[in-house]
Amino acid sequence: MDNPFAQEPRASSSWLWQVITGIGLLFLLGLHLVAQHFLVKGGLRDYAEVVTYLRNPLVLVLEVLFLVCVTTHAMLGVRAILQDFGLSARVEQRLSRGLTGVGILTVAYSLLLLWVIIH
Amino acid sequence: MLDVTLEIFRYKPGEEPHYDTFAVQVAETAYVIDALDEAWALYDHSLTFRHACHHSSCGSCALRINGIEKLACITRMTDVWDGVHPIRLDPLRNFPIVSDLVVDVSGFFQRMSASHMQITRDAEPILPVSVDKPALGVQAEAISLPENLTRFNRFENCIECGICMSACPTMATDEKFFGPAGLAAIYRACQQTDDPTETAHLLALADGEHGVWRCHSAFECIEACPQAVDPAGKIMALRQELIARRFKKSGR
Amino acid sequence: MEPFKHPGFYRVGRWFDLRRRKAGMWAYALNRITGIGLVVYLYLHLVVLSLLLGGPGSWNAFVSLARSPLVLVLDVILFAGALIHGLNGVRVALTSFSRGVRVQKGFFSVVMVVTVVTLAFVALKVFGG
C-alpha cells in the first residue's frame, strides 16, 4: 500500500545548517553590533572611518563570515515558514532554488558593496 | 445546580457556520459532556457531537472548550465556567468539520497506521471475546490478531483523540505534516522493535521536511495532551536519534 | 456533503493565536514575528549601506539622520527583536537535542528576563551616549 506520508528522508540538513548558522550568529552578530556601533562614539562611523575600519583584514573576514551566516540563516528561515504551507513537492523544489538564488544575489551584492567601499 | 449558557459552534453541510446558545441546568459535579447531553436532549436533537466511554479512554469527545482542546468527559463544568460568560464549545481545529462538533478524523488515523505502530503491550491484553457472553453473539474466533501476535492493545497512553493535532500551529497550515501523535507513535514503534530494518524504515518516515523537522517547538501538544503522551518530547528524541545516526554513518 | 474547512488566510492566523495558550506558543509566535522582522531589516540595512556608494556626502547625511531620537527608538526595538530571536534560538536548539524540553517554559522566562535586562543596558547606552 502506498504510504501517503512517505517522505524524502535526510531532511535534517536544512535544520542542521539553521542551528549552525544560528550559533555562528550569536557570536558574529554580537561582534558586529559591538564593533560597529557600541565601541564607536555616536554609534555610527562617518564615511572615512568606515573605509579605514573595513580595510582591516580581520574585520573584513569576520564581516564577510557574518554576511554569509546571516543570509543563509535568513533564507532557511523564510523557507521554513513557506514550507509550513504544505506546498507541493514541485513548488517546494522551486522555492528552495529561488531562495538559494536570492541568497547568492544578496551575498554577491554585499561583497560588491564592500569591494567598492574599500577601493 | 449550575445555570450555564453554552455557546456551541454549529455547522451543517450547505449552511453557514454559526454559534447557537443553549441555557442548561446541570449539577455542580457535572462534566461538560453532561451539559452537552442536556442541550441535545432538551433543545436540539440535530446537535451532533461524539462521545462513547465517558472516562477518557476512547478520545471521542475531544473538542475545544473556550478555545482550548479538552476531553468533554473529564472536564468539570466548575473548572471552565467563570459564573458569568457563556462556555464556548468548538470542534477541534485543523480537521475538516463534518457537522457541528464532529470533525473528520480520518487524516489522524491515516498517520497512526502509517507509523506502523505495533499494538502490543503485556500489561493490559485484550483477551479474545469470552464465550461466557453469548448475548453479544460474537465467537472467540471472531477476533483475528495480526500474525505473530497472541494478544494486543493500543499504543501506550495515547487515546487517539486528535487534541495534539488541533493544538499544533504547524498543523494549521501544513496538511502534509506528520503531526505530534503520529511522530510520537513512530518513536514508540521504534522502541519496541528489535529489527534494524523496521527501525530504519520508521526513522526514514520521521526524517522528512514534513516529519520531525517541520516542528517549530511551540510545545502546545504537550500542554494539550490529556494523557501525558509528551509528543514534542518524542519529536525531539527522534531528532536527536536522527542526527546521531547521521554523524555515526558519515564518521565511519 | 462537503466538510467545512476554514480558508487558508484564517488558518495562518492560528500561528499567532495566543488566546489561552501557554509560554511555548508565545515563544513560537515571537520567534516567527522577530524572524520575519529581522529579514526585512536585513534588506533595509543593505539599502541603507548602499548609500556608501554615493560617497561621503550621502553617507554622512544619513549618519546625522540616524542619530535622531526616533531612529534610536527603532534601533532599540530592533535590538529587542534580535535578542529575543537569538536567545530563544538557543532554547529551541537545545530542546531540539532533547535538552530541557521539560523546563522549556521556565527556559522561555529566562530568555525574556535576559532580554529585558540586556535591553535596559542597551537603551541606557544608546540614549545616554
Explain the layout of strands and helices:
The complex is a heterotrimer of chains A (119), B (252) and C (129).
Chain A: H1 12-38, H2 47-54, H3 57-83, H4 89-118
Helix pairs in contact in A: 1-3, 3-4
Chain B: E1 2-10, E2 18-26, H1 32-42, E3 62-65, E4 68-71, H2 77-80, E5 87-90, E6 97-99, E7 102-103, H3 106-114, H4 163-167, H5 169-173, H6 180-191, H7 196-206, H8 220-224, H9 231-251
Helix pairs in contact in B: 3-6, 6-7, 6-9
Chain C: H1 8-12, H2 23-49, H3 55-66, H4 69-96, H5 104-128
Helix pairs in contact in C: 2-4, 4-5
**Biggest sheet statistics of chain C:** none
Helix content of chain A: over 70%
| Residues in β-strands, percent of chain C | under 5%
Rg from alpha-carbon coordinates of chain A: 19 Å
β-strand number of chain A: 0
Give the strand content of chain A. Answer: under 5%
Structural class of chain C: mainly alpha
Mean pLDDT of chain A: 90
**SSE arrangement of chain C, N to C:** HHHHH
User: Which runs of chain A of at least 5 residues are low in confidence (pLDDT < 50)?
Assistant: none
Number of helices of chain A: 4
Query: Per the principal axes of the C-alpha atoms, what is the gross shape of chain A?
Result: elongated
Instruction: Provide mean pLDDT of chain C, rounded.
Output: 93
**SS summary, helix count of chain C:** 5
Q: Which term fits the overall shape of chain C?
A: extended
What does this structure look like?
- The complex is a heterotrimer of chains A (119), B (252) and C (129).
- Helices cover 77% and strands 0% of the residues of chain A.
- Chain A has 119 residues and is mainly α.
- With 252 residues, chain B is an alpha+beta fold.
- Helix content of chain B is 33%, strand content 14%.
- Chain B is built from nine helices and seven strands; from the N terminus they run ββαββαβββααααααα.
- In chain B, the strands form two sheets. Chain B has a five-stranded mixed sheet with strand order 2-1-5-3-4. A two-stranded antiparallel ribbon of chain B has the order 6-7.
- In chain B, β6 (97-99) and β7 form a beta hairpin.
- In chain B, α3 runs parallel beside α6 and α6 (180-191) packs across α9 (231-251).
- Chain B is elongated, with a radius of gyration of 21 Å.
- The termini of chain B are far apart.
- Chain C is mainly alpha-helical.
- The chains are: A mainly alpha (119), B alpha+beta (252), C mainly alpha (129).
- Chain A binds chain C through residues 15, 19, 22-23, 25-26, 29, 33, 38, 42-48, 50, 70-71, 74, 77-78, 81, 84-85, 106, 109-110, 113, 116-117, and chain C through 8, 15, 32, 35-36, 38-39, 42-43, 46, 49-50, 52-53, 55-56, 59-60, 63, 66-67, 72, 75, 79, 82, 86, 89-90, 93, 96, 125-126, 129.
